[in-house]
Design goal:
The protein has 209 residues and is mainly alpha-helical. The protein has ten helices and no strands.
């Protein structure tokens, strides 16, 4: 039986492994520290024997790290699906910022996953290394922004005189700043006003008048 590597596409993950990943997600949502989870705790929650877990993984760290990678993949897929259902760039930006606003109180939220990757721990570095691989390129937020802006340029909604790479990072910087504002709180302005400024800033700079 093939061991998991963390580089699998979602469709390649066996059902028993998905149960382990879902168990990790539930435990983390309940406040467990990913670094101190025990294999027995994970397998008990998943309803799978420890022996079965070790058929797919060599260590507890692999289970947890690959589970977080899987959560990142599924979060990006859900976000992309929602964005592509919107037909205009303005509708997409409204949806994106609304999703960020709603994330803080939501289970399995993208913001919670981002927090797991900001502590500069060995755990975070390993997750980042896998997500930075070519195998997971399509799950990167920056690639999603590139897809959205490229399509908006073709539709004539977004300026053609600015380099696409610049627009991707300009938009990305504003959205990521808003993610931080939502997750950290303590703003001296209302969050709704912050959202409005981010939205207007993206459209005013990038869209055709």
């Amino acid at each position: 039986m093939a061991k998991m590597t963390g580089f699998e596409d979602i469709g390649q993950i066996p059902p028993k492994v998905l149960k382990l990943y879902e168990a990790v997600s539930q435990l983390v949502e309940e406040g467990a520290d990913p670094g101190t989870l025990r294999v027995s705790t994970i397998t008990d929650r998943a309803g799978i024997g420890k022996g079965t877990a070790y058929e797919y993984f060599d260590s507890k760290d692999e289970i947890v790290i690959y589970a977080v990678v899987y959560q990142m993949q599924t979060a990006m897929m859900e976000l992309e699906k929602g964005l592509l259902e919107r037909k205009t760039f303005q509708e997409q930006m409204n949806y994106l910022l609304d999703e960020v606003t709603a994330q803080e109180g939501r289970q399995n939220s993208f913001l919670k996953l981002i927090h797991l990757l900001t502590d500069n721990s060995e755990f975070s570095r390993q997750v980042q290394g896998i997500m930075a691989s070519a195998a997971h390129e399509k799950y990167r937020l920056i690639q999603l922004f590139r897809k959205l802006l490229g399509a908006a340029v073709e539709r004539g909604e977004v300026r053609k005189d600015l380099p696409l790479d610049y627009m991707v990072f300009s938009m990305g910087g504003r959205v990521l700043a808003y993610m931080v504002a939502v997750s950290e709180g303590g703003l001296q302005i209302e969050l709704s006003r912050m959202r409005e400024l981010v939205y207007d800033g993206i459209l005013n700079e990038l869209c055709n008048k």
